[in-house]
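C-alpha cells please, single chain.
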Amino acid sequence: MIYLDNAATTPVCPEAAQAAMEAMTTAFGNPSSTHAPGRAARALLADARAAVAQSIGASPEEIAFTSGGTEGDSWAIRSGAYLMRHKGRHIISSLTEHDAVRKALDHLQSQGWEVTRLAPGPDGAVSAADVAAALRPDTALVSLMLVNNETGAITDLPAVVRAVRQAGCPALVHTDAVQGWMKVPFTVGSLGADMISLSGHKIHAPKGVGALYIRRGVRLPPLLPGGGQEDGRRSGTENMPGIAALAAAVRAARADAHAPARMAALRQRAVDSLTAAAPELTVLGGGAPHILCLSLPGYKSEVLLNYLDALGISVSKGSACKRGARSHVLEAMGLEPRVIDGAIRVSLGRFNTEGDIDALCAGLLRARAELYKVL
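Here you go.
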C-alpha cells in the first residue's frame, strides 16, 4: 500500500505506539489521584504538556489537552465568543474553513451572532487586507485556519493579527493550525494568535487526542464542565495513553527536523513529473510542503480515486469529512465545475518516499490514458 492521504490521518509512529502502550500498562494511574500510581501519571502528564508547549514556544500552563482539532476549534470559537460577548457579536472567518469551524460558526449564527465569511484569493488564502476591511467596532472574534486542509494554502496569520491590533480591535484571534503543526514552522510568538488548535493524528500520533493553546490571560470558559481537570478548563479524566503518544510523536517529529523539506521536495517531484506529461493538469492553491491539490479537468475525481485505490495507492478527493460532497473550498476559490470535479488531494507524511511519488505519477498517467473523460 502507498499511503498518500496524510492530511486525513497519519499512521501512528513507533515512538507514539510504544508510549501509549507504556501509559496503558505501566503509568496507568489517574493523574488526579494522590497515591503513587496517580503521581506517576501526573508526572507523565506534566512531561507531555511541556513537550507540546515547547514545540510551539508556549508555556506549559497555556496548553490544555483535548480530544482533537474539532473540540479545540469548537471550544475556542464558542467559548471565545461567549467570553467576548460584551465587546460585540460580530465574527470574522472565511469560506474555506474546516467544518469544525464552519459548524461552530453556524451554531453561533443561530444564536444571533453575525459572521462575515471572507472569500479566498486565487491562491486559496485569505488576505490580511480583507480582514482589516471587514473589522468593525463590534468584532469580537477572528478565526482563520493557518494551512488549508484541502489546498495547502497558507494564511499570513501574523499579518492578520497585526491588522486586528493596529485597528485597535479587542477581538480574540483563533487559528486552526491542525495542518500546519510540525510542517510549517511557527511559534505562538510569531503567529500572535490568542488560541491555536492542534491535533495528534495529523503528526503520527493516535486519533482522539489534541491540544488547544490558550494565551496566558485569556480566561476561556470551559466547553466541558465537570471534575475540573486541566486546571478547570477541560473536565474529564485525561486520556493518558493518547497524551503520552502525542508527546512522543512531537518529539519524534522535532528530531526529524528535515521532514518538511523532504515533503516539499516530494511534492515538487510530483508537480514536475505530472505537468510535464499532462499539460492540462492544474495545481490548485498550495504553499504547505505536504499538501498537493491537483485536477485533471474532464475526469471525475471519484473515478480517479477508485482507479488509484485498485493500484494500492491511497489519495483523497478533499477533506475526509466531506463524504462525497463537492468541495466548498474549491468552490470558494471560484474554480470551474469541471476543474473541481476532477480534483484530488495528495498529502504527505514523514514516511513517504520518492518511490511513492513515482508510483502515484505512473498511476495517474495510466488513468489519464485508460479512463474516459466525462463529456
